[in-house]
Amino acid sequence: MSTDMLRSTVGGEEAGESHSINPVTGEVVARYPWLSAPQVTAKVEEAAKAYAAWSASGLDRRCHALRQLGEVLGDRQDTLSELIALEMGKPVARARAEVLKCANLCFWYADHSERLLADELVDLGGDGAARISYRPLGIVLGVMPWNFPLWQVLRAAVPVIASGNGFLLKHADNVQGAAFALEAAFAQTDMPKGLFANLNVHRSVLPRLLSDPRIAGVSVTAGVAAGSAIAAEAGRNLKKSVLELGGSDPFIVLADADLDRAVPAAIEARFQNSGQVCIAGKRIIVEKPIAAAFTARFMDAVGQLRMGDPFDADVDLGPLARVRLRNELADQVERSVAMGAKLLAGGIVPSGPGAFYPPTVLTDVTPDMPVFAEETFGPVAALMTVDDAKAAVELANNSDFGLCGSIWTGNIALGQQLADCIESGGMFINKVAISDPRVPIGGIKQSGYGRELSHFGIREFCNAKMVWNGA
């Protein structure tokens, strides 16, 4: 997406609406008119007033409000999980886990923000001493995706708000119900009115928002094209940006790995949320001595996965979020098969309504194929065999992306050594990649820059202000 596309309008920025479409049936379940220009201006003005009060408040007040938010989310877990399932097709049990993870995120920052934002003192010897404090910057604009409609938003917003900033959300069009539900949850806390607000607008409004002096920066989770266009617009206005732009994470299984752990982990890494996870293990790289055994057990496990209505308690995979995304995924698979990949399972678009796509496994995959070179955002596993660990690292690094990855081995020292050699923002040894408030998440290369979560995330949109006291 170019900056010109970002600025373009479709039918006029004030004339349209967002649609929530049930991905099981294809039916529109709700319509949300875009905000008019005066309404957007009013939201920004309200956020600016809220920020002025919030940034002057003490950490005790902020942490108390975060605890309130966590409690509200927990109280509303049934409604919120059903809304997630309805709007983007996530199985209800997984949706509930997302809601509770968000609540725990609020509690974690409520418990730790004082420590994470504490002043740092620097002894300068005979030159005196310096104090570094972390001061808020202003209002942060969040451009967020649909795949974790609550977690992705709060992963960015909670640290930003804990540090004293405000947060305006531009959410994906198809999950506006979740966006407004989050706005309602924030309204139940003691945070100033408008500190967190949902802006249901067309993308053409983003340049205007980024040029507003009250907007201090932007946090984006999106595809590479959209993210780079927004970052370019932020740069034009000298606004800080944090980008998480997806990935094609390697999932490396060495010859000494415990397959009783590695196979279930590979299933989880690739097929959770119907494969619609930025840090999913999309490229499964297996050392040759165990390739046959791993593949056989992996295929048995794939055969046990159940696809269907996300409101069915027995379902493992719901539909993809949109038919267009399903069709793009199917095209990636078809092009890869035409280039020589072998289809072991799935790969056929089901007949009937909805955005369903079956668990799909490809082998004989090479780096020039779409399922290797591109991000596959759906339930498609690309299996590759390598001769040794060195070749596994080389194949893992043969990617434009660098978000996360995992290594499965019985030799932890070797795993640590290989992890240091892989070009990524994070690596996991004998563990499925996750995002957790205790550690940072973010990427390099085409996966973006900046970090969310931990002390890195809470300080991303802070002014690290230094005051030097002379001797």
UniProtKB/TrEMBL annotation:
The answer on whether this UniProt entry bears the keyword Transit peptide reads no
Q: Which UniProt keywords apply?
A: Oxidoreductase
Concerning Gene3D superfamilies, the annotation shows: Aldehyde Dehydrogenase, Chain A, domain 1, Aldehyde Dehydrogenase, Chain A, domain 2
Q: Which InterPro entries match?
A: Ald_DH/histidinol_DH, Ald_DH_C, Ald_DH_CS_CYS, Ald_DH_N, Aldehyde_DH_dom, GABD/Sad-like
Q: Where is this region: Disordered?
A: 1-22
What does the record give as EC number? 1.2.1.16, 1.2.1.24
Q: What is the protein named?
A: Succinate-semialdehyde dehydrogenase
Q: Which organism is it from?
A: Sphingobium subterraneum
